[in-house]
């Protein structure tokens, strides 16, 4: 289980997170929502090691993640995507995914230089896995195309494929639906459900309330760097503090 | 079609000293081969990890001095001195990689330039070890059993083997998860980290392999010219390597070799037809034209043409 305990992050005098604690139950889809500047992306950056908290810690299955490098956190099965589209721009779709499979490979420098036969089997396996993932995110028809030349929505699917390739036990998605059309959002929601059904835990930050309420098992609401509510979607929608937070930010 | 093309190229390379009788031309070919290894080595960093090393002559020079000193002072065999030179340069690459862990772009470039400057100063001033500006004459040619690789023809085959081995090493690296990690570092570092690519580890690894290859080229150079002086650290060597990689096509396997061939032969060809001032001018103009019309390099341009047809 992923647990965030009393995490605070300060940028100069500003508290982006101010004592945030929550747990993400395994095998669920949990959404983090909140007005702009509530600290959602800061929370993601802290969990995945891109930011060091001023206080508090993040643990996964009891082991401390805080202080580890992002790559070390990924090795423990916690993998994220980014709010702004983030692919390997000059690589093809399938090559993007193959980079994502880095942790599934084992080849070391000497083996590679000596050209061991075992490597060829590994490369074949990785190529097959990459194809399966490209198929899973629905980009088989784009397989060989350069990632940066794809339309925005498809680039986000590439990004999802790269993250999936890293074999996440917990997948953190930062606004997976941002900038997508309604049908594209539907596709992404379907994929997120399938990812959960295959056993992964999904934690997502999302602004689209229809999407959040439609797929989440649990919703966590952040405002001003604090958790103001946590619960099932229906309960959250009726929560007075949540309504106030959103109306407040809308009128500001 | 490609396979037969490759077979012809291999046959040409293997028989070249027999139909190319002119020793001067053979000399140029040997130098092109040594620069080919250097360009391949620089390409690993510049083309794949995207980091520009402007101190690459330092690794070349460290290899040349290591090999020269080991064979001259300790009378080691060339065949032991060559890997030792690669190792010494690789160690230097490791130091630079560690130093530059947090540095990218311009800062990485500055560190590599300063490093080359320091090593060059050491070679000039540590008289007891390096003989200072006078250099180290009399570096022995490699011996192979009863034969001495003293002739250009024999040395050509040694360099050819080195080019082939370096190309194979680069090809295997680039086609592996290690090469993909290099490219990931170039393309999008934070995304690479997020899927578990330990970016600093792979940057150091690229620096070590790249420096090691450059050190090997340095050793080949030392035992070919049989003289090593602080000139091996000249910035012009580094600039030439960068030109070769960029003009040939960085991030491609064949590009550095094409660039090395072209930019070793070109000054020689120009020297044959015109005076020194015009040589430099022509060289400069050609370079500008290349960058202007083929910004990604010769090999990517050829690949694009072939794909279209």
Descriptive labels:
heterodimer, A: 252 residues, alpha/beta, Rossmann fold, 2 domains, 4-stranded antiparallel beta sheet, B: 309 residues, mainly alpha, two-stranded antiparallel sheet, globular
Describe the overall structure.
The complex is a heterodimer of chains A (252) and B (309). Chain A contains 10 helices and 10 strands. Chain A has 252 residues and is of the alpha/beta class. Chain A folds into 2 domains: 146 residues, Rossmann fold; 77 residues, no CATH class. In chain A, the strands form 2 sheets. In chain A, strands 6-7-8-3-9-10 form a 6-stranded mixed beta sheet, sandwiched between helices. In chain A, β4 and β5 form a beta hairpin. Chain B has 309 residues and is an all-alpha fold. Chain B has a domain of 215 residues. In chain B, 77% of the residues lie in helices and 3% in strands. In chain B, the strands form 2 sheets. A two-stranded antiparallel sheet of chain B has the order 1-4. A two-stranded antiparallel ribbon of chain B has the order 2-3. In chain B, a hairpin with a 2-residue loop joins β2 and β3. In chain B, α2 packs antiparallel against α10. The mean pLDDT of chain B is 89. At the A-B interface, α2, α3, α4, α5 and α6 of A face α7, α8, α9 and α10 of B.
Short description:
The complex is a heterodimer of chains A (252) and B (309). With 252 residues, chain A is an alpha/beta fold.
The chain pair with the largest interface is:
A-B, 40 and 26 residues
What's the architecture of the largest domain in chain A in CATH terms? 3-Layer(aba) Sandwich
* Residue runs with pLDDT of under 50 for 5 or more positions of chain A: none
For the report, how would you describe the main beta sheet of chain B? 2 strands, antiparallel
Distance between the termini of chain A: 37 Å
Question: How many domains make up the 3D coordinates of chain A?
Answer: 2
Number of strands of chain B: 4
Order of helices and strands of chain A: EEEHEEHEHHHHEHEHEEHH
Quaternary structure classification = heterodimer
The computed structural class of chain A is: alpha/beta
Secondary structure: helix percent of chain B: over 70%
């Amino acid at each position: 289980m992923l647990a965030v305990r009393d995490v605070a992050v300060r940028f100069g005098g500003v508290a982006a997170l101010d004592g945030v604690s929550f747990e993400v139950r395994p095998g669920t889809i949990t959404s983090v929502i909140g007005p702009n500047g509530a600290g959602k992306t800061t929370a993601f950056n802290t969990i995945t090691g891109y930011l060091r908290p001023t206080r508090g810690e993040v643990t996964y299955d009891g082991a401390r993640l805080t202080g580890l490098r992002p790559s070390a956190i990924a090795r423990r099965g916690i993998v994220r995507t980014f709010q702004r589209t983030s692919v390997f721009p000059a690589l093809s779709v399938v090559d993007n995914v193959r980079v994502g499979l880095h942790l599934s490979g084992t080849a070391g420098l000497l083996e590679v230089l000596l050209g061991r036969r075992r490597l060829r089997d590994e490369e074949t396996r990785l190529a097959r896995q990459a194809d399966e993932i490209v198929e899973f995110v629905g980009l088989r028809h784009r397989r060989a195309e350069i990632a940066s030349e794809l339309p925005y929505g498809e680039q986000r699917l590439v990004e999802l494929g790269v993250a999936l390739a890293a074999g996440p036990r917990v997948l953190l998605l930062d606004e997976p639906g941002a900038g997508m059309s309604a049908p594209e959002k539907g596709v992404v929601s379907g994929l997120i459900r399938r990812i959960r059904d295959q056993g992964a835990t999904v934690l997502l930050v999302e602004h689209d309330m229809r999407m959040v309420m439609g797929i989440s098992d649990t919703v966590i609401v952040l405002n001003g760097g604090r958790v103001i509510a946590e619960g099932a979607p229906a309960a959250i929608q009726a929560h007075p503090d949540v309504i106030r937070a959103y109306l407040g930010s809308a009128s500001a | 079609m490609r396979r037969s093309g490759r077979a012809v190229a291999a046959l040409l390379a293997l028989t070249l000293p027999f139909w190319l009788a002119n020793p001067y031309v053979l000399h140029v070919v040997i130098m092109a081969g040594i620069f080919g290894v250097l360009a391949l080595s620089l390409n690993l960093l510049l083309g794949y990890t995207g980091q520009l090393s402007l101190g690459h002559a330092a690794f070349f020079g460290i290899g040349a001095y290591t090999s020269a000193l080991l064979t001259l002072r300790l009378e080691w065999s060339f065949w032991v001195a060559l890997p030792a030179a690669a190792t010494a340069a690789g160690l230097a690459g490791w130091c630079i990689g560690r130093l530059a862990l947090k540095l990218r772009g311009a800062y990485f470039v500055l560190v590599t330039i300063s490093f080359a400057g320091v090593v060059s100063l050491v070679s000039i001033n540590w008289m007891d070890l390096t003989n200072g500006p006078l250099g180290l004459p009399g570096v022995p040619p490699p011996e192979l059993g009863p034969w001495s690789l003293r002739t250009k023809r024999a040395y050509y085959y040694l360099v050819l083997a080195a080019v082939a081995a370096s190309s194979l090493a680069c090809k295997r690296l680039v086609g592996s998860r290690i090469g993909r990690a290099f490219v990931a570092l170039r393309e999008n570092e934070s995304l690479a980290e997020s899927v578990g690519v330990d970016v600093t580890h792979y940057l150091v690894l690229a620096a070590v392999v790249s420096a090691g290859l450059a050190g090997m080229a340095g050793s080949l150079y030392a035992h070919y010219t049989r003289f090593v002086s602080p000139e091996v650290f000249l910035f012009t060597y580094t600039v030439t390597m960068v030109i070769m990689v960029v003009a040939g096509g960085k991030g491609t396997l064949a590009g550095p070799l094409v660039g090395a061939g072209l930019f070793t032969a070109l000054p020689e060809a120009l020297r044959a037809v015109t005076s020194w001032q015009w040589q430099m001018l022509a060289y400069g103009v050609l370079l500008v034209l290349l960058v202007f019309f083929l910004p990604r390099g010769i090999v990517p341009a050829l690949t694009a043409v072939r794909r279209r047809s």
